[in-house]
Amino acid sequence: MSEIVRKYYDENAEQEWKRLQDPYSKIEFEGTMYLINKYFPKVGAVCDIGAGPGRYSIELIKKGYNTTLLEFSNKELEIAKEKIQELDLVAEAFHCRDARDLSVFTDNQFDALLVMGPLYHLINKEDRRKVLEESYRVLKPNGVAIIAYINSWGAIKAGISEFPESYSNIDALYKYLGEQSLSADVGFTECYFTTPPKALEEVADAGFDIVSYAGVEGFAAGFSNEIIKLYNENPEAYMNIVKASAENCESPQFRDATEHLHIVVHKNRK
């Protein structure tokens, strides 16, 4: 990942901690936790690759996993250390490094992996391949990983409420129907959007077996303004939507059109 991406997350580290607390992003969080609870082994060593400020790592530690954090942004990692310490929790290790190089870990070290974030920002296919191959290497045979991408098909839907002005250009709108590599001038920083078929193919080509995939915002995807309004005006209805969206995030009728695509994979014993 580039220094542009590192700078963005260093400068927005505190905001990234707060992000998953907002009413709409909480749906993403709960969808991800649903997949963790459903597919991860009940015990073992887990590495959170692209751990950010530690939101998911904290939950993994609470569940009893021996949790290692790896994060590109030192500022994000410092927040994770502080938050984990404040909660009197203990992580196995903290590593500030690029996800393309996991040489600090041995082969077959982890029972499960979260790979959430690195693939959002690697524009070159070869770089994404390095992340996937390294993740495969450090995962134990029979291990499980959840690998995340930003989904173009969900982004075009979300854009109706979040950035409709960009749709004044029909060519720009149609770009969201396929792969996109965005510069920092266009995206929130340098970022990569793709479609579910392309993401699934990329992950399978790295050797993983696809178990399932999900759109973690579920049927609530693209309705951020409405979700926030509901959170303020009808908390009971809001919580029902959060729960039902998470529990149905793998449903075919929803999963191809959400912003965050999570692919659940398995490493076969060979």
TrEMBL record:
Keyword Nuclease: no
Pfam families according to UniProt: Methyltransf_25
The keyword Secreted is annotated on this UniProt entry: no
Xref: Gene3D superfamilies: Vaccinia Virus protein VP39
Limits of the Methyltransferase domain: 46-143
Superkingdom per UniProt: Bacteria
Keywords: Ubiquinone
PANTHER family according to UniProt: METHYLTRANSFERASE
Protein name per its UniProtKB record: Ubiquinone/menaquinone biosynthesis C-methylase UbiE
UniProt organism field: Alkaliphilus hydrothermalis
